Amino acid sequence: MAWFFLILAGVLEVVWSLGLKYTQGFTRPVPSIITGTAIVASMVSLARAARTLPIGTAYAVWVGIGVVGAVIGGVVLFDEAMPPLRIVFVVLLVVSIVGLKLTSAT
User: Fold this and answer.
1) Please, which contacts does 54-63 make with residues 24 or more away whose CB atoms are closer than 8 Å?
2) Average pLDDT over the chain, rounded to whole?
3) Does pTM top 0.70 for this prediction?
């Protein structure tokens, strides 16, 4: 169950990090509320996962999911560039996340 909460926390981190772009500096109420809610829900889910998982693993996986999701979301939603080296480094992050999952005690 801890991994479920950790993945949920990572997905919510993607939501709030991409949502920041839509808030326009928290001047738009609806995107700001969605972003703020996602931040809180992400932290609560991360805390729930960290009850069982080692904090170093939980935090690294949470950040990794957020980074990979934000990069992909930036490309899809905001037409950001995706040069070959950027792809290589995103793949390295994914490999690291999988490695942490495989070597975690739970």
Assistant:
1) 54/104, 54/105, 57/100, 57/101, 57/104, 58/2, 58/6, 60/96, 60/97, 60/100, 61/6, 61/10, 61/97, 61/100, 61/101, 62/6, 62/9, 62/10, 62/13, 63/13
2) 94
3) yes
